[in-house]
Task: structure prediction
Amino acid sequence: MGESTVRIMCPNLTCRKVLAVPAVARGKTVRCRSCGTNIRVPETKKAPKPTEQPQTNEPD
Result:
């Protein structure tokens, strides 16, 4: 499976099946075939923000 599918886990604690949904379903709601729970597919993977180093004013 490549970039054309998104793997998500069913949030239902009694199910927890891993679903492979098409990438075009991002931002939409899909239904788990196993238990019927509606699941919102995340929009996109967000790149982690680089941690900013606080600037300190050190005397020269």
Q: What stands out?
A: The radius of gyration is 19 Å. The first strand starts at residue 5 and ends at 9.
